[in-house]
Every structure is written in C-alpha cells, then in structure tokens.
C-alpha cells in the first residue's frame, strides 16, 4: 500500500500529464463519455466536468478537431487529434521521456 | 430525460457564455444521458431521484461546471498578485496610520464628546479603506486583463537598498509582548499627558509637584513623541522584526526624546516640589522634597544616557549590516 499523499500534491502532479494522456488517447476518435471511460480504464481518472472544458481548450488551440455525428440515434461530438495535435503530441512525448528519465535519475 | 437533469442543465446554461451555450449544453446533456443509462443498467433499469441527485452532485455545482469553460478563471493572476498584495498591505498601513492620527486628533482637539468623535473618525477611515481597496482591486484586475507584467523588466541593480515594507532582519525579532506593552504604556501616558495638561499638578505623600508655565512649551513636542511611539509600537506589533527603517525610526524617536530631555534639564524650575501645608510629618516631607529636587535631574540624565546607548546600538547594528 502506497504512502498517503495530500490530494493537492497528487492533483498538481497529474495536471500537466492529463493533456498528454488526452492527446495520446485521441489518436483514435472518441466522444467525451467514451474517452473518459477509456482514460479511467487505463488508470487516468478524470472528472467529466474537467475533461470537457479541456477538450474545448485543446480544440481552440488547434490540437483537436471535432464534429457532431449521430451514433445509436444520439447526437454526439467526436474528437480526434489534428495534424497540429500530432506534432504537439510527438513533442510532448519527447519532453515526457526526457523528464521521466531525469526524474528516475533523481528518484 | 429526467426533471432533475433538465433543471441542472438549465442552470449550467445560464452561467455559460452566450455564443457557445447551446453547443456545450448539448454535449453535457449527452454525457449525463450516458451516465444515466449506465446507472440504470447497473440498477436493473430502475434509477431513483436520490441516485440521480447523487450523480449530479458528483458532477459538480452548475456554476462550477460552467465556470470551467470560461476563458478566465481568476481576477488577478500569479504574475500580478504579488504587486497587488503589496499595494493592498501598504494601503492598510497608510489608512491605519491616518486612522490613529485622526482619532488622536479628535481626542485632543474635540471639546465635546471626543471619544465619539474618535470612533466616528475611525469608522469613516475604515469606509475609505474599503472604497480604496475596491478601486485598487479593479485597477489590478484591469492590469491583469491587459496582460501587463510587473516583473518582466526586473533588474537586480535597480533594487532599492532600503525596502520600506519588506523585512530585512527577519532573524532579529521584536517580541509581540514588548510591542503590546509599549502600546498600553504609550496610551496610558498619552491620556495622562492630555488629561493633566489643564490641571498640571501632581500630589503624592505629603508633597505637591507644580509645573511652571514653561511646561506649556513642552506639551506639543511630548504629545508628538508619544503619538510617534504609539505608531512605532503598532508597526512592531504587525511586523514583529527589525528592518532598517524600523531601526532608523527608533533612532530618530529616541534621539528626539533625548533632545526634549536635555531641553527639560536646561529649563530651570520646570517642576517644583513643595511640602503640603499641614503635612502629618513635616520633617519627612521636607526630606522628600529635597530628595526629589536632587533625584529628578539625575533621573533625566540617566534616561538621556540610556537613550544615547540605544541610539549607538541601533547605529552599530545598521552599520554592521
């Protein structure tokens, strides 16, 4: 069992990595609800009320594209990584690896 | 869908920006519908109002949910906040000092109901502080909005060697008890000094102390020094550590006291002691008068010496840093 740590520290640590997780997951198309469940299944728990504004922000930055489509007779908004998002994801992944290696050396 | 969810979405929409309101609400509605379906599936297709309410509570208050879509989530951000906080603290100190001075002014110069006048003065100064704080907040919020950055042009060589508010000698604290004692002492002496001015006579045992007319020349300087002492003690209570400014302030204050004491020493007959007529023990009263006449100048000289030592100590500490 891990040592209990304050929620604020945990959230601060996770905040930056959420963008990377969302961009990575959206190499395949998803709508918000399935994306949230997918991330949760992979161990990245994120509240819907946090995820949706993040998706909007990433879309406004040009990293995601979205479109409304019908699925199971329901209108859903599907998100996917844009070309710009692909480049950003590659850059962020490199950054993450460098950081991870550096931290492993320290920890 | 569900009346609770409909109401919830209506509230979320009311807090959303107009141009994206319907789009965001449609997406949230789809999400809540999916959550409701999952909930129904997990409960044999029966969902109570209580369960829906719990689901919405977990989703968050409508204002909070909508707020996350707003482009700006704060009024004053971290790059402007330190300057704002510093300005706000300065404002409180300035208004605090003004309130103390005006209240003391009211106590001294208001002939009718001086206490009520002092309370009124403090009240109106507090309202002024509130109004100026609001203006200051609005100005800094506007600076934040405009993208102004206070600290981008920072140059170490432009830093003042004499910061006014920032502590310089944090390892050298001033005990709060000492400051509280100074405040109580200053107020007590101040009240005595103001109250006794019109009736400048002291009586103890069988001896009367009479002030000469020269006393009136000392009234304002001593009053000013007592008020200055009160302000210094209040400052030390709020900021209980020595800064260069605090040391310079004490040196000046003590230096002025020394000047007044030397002036008093050189004013012959400032206070005269006399045995009260019909004293129970005239011999003892006469000895007491003689003793007081001799010891008062000595006492003043001792105070001058202590004051000079204090100034020298402060000067040494300042120069050493």
What would your notes on this structure say?
The complex is a heterodimer of chains A (107) and B (321). In chain A, strands 1-3-2 form a three-stranded antiparallel sheet. Chain A has 107 residues and is α+β, with helices and mostly antiparallel strands. In chain A, helix 1 (7-25) crosses helix 4. Chain A contains four helices and three strands. Chain B is mainly α and 321 residues long. Chain B has ten helices and five strands; from the N terminus they run H-H-H-H-H-H-E-H-E-E-H-E-H-E-H. Chain B has helices at 3-15, 21-42, 49-59, 62-67, 81-109, 114-146, 176-196, 215-238, 244-265, 282-320, and strands at 169-173, 201-204, 207-211, 241-242, 271-275. Chain B is elongated, with a radius of gyration of 33 Å. The chains are: A alpha+beta (107), B mainly alpha (321). The A-B interface holds A 31-33, 36, 47-50, 52-53, 56, 68, 74-77 and B 20, 24, 26-28, 30-31, 33-35, 59-60, 64-65, 68-69.
Q: Can you lay out the helices and strands and say which pair or pack?
A:
The complex is a heterodimer of chains A (107) and B (321).
Chain A: H1 7-25, E1 30-31, H2 32-41, H3 48-60, E2 64-71, E3 74-81, H4 83-106
Helix pairs in contact in A: 1-4
Chain B: H1 3-15, H2 21-42, H3 49-59, H4 62-67, H5 81-109, H6 114-146, E1 169-173, H7 176-196, E2 201-204, E3 207-211, H8 215-238, E4 241-242, H9 244-265, E5 271-275, H10 282-320
Antiparallel strand pairs in B: 1-4, 2-3, 3-5
Q: How many beta-strand elements of chain A?
A: 3
Quickly count the helices of chain A: 4
Instruction: Tell me the series of helices and strands of chain B, N- to C-terminal.
Output: HHHHHHEHEEHEHEH
Question: What low-confidence regions of chain A span 5 or more consecutive residues with pLDDT below 50?
Answer: none
The helix content of chain A is 55-70%
SSE string of chain A, helices as H and strands as E = HEHHEEH
What's the average pLDDT of chain B? 84
Low-confidence stretches of chain B: none
Q: What is the structural class of chain B?
A: mainly alpha
Sheet-strand content of chain A, in percent, reads 15-25%
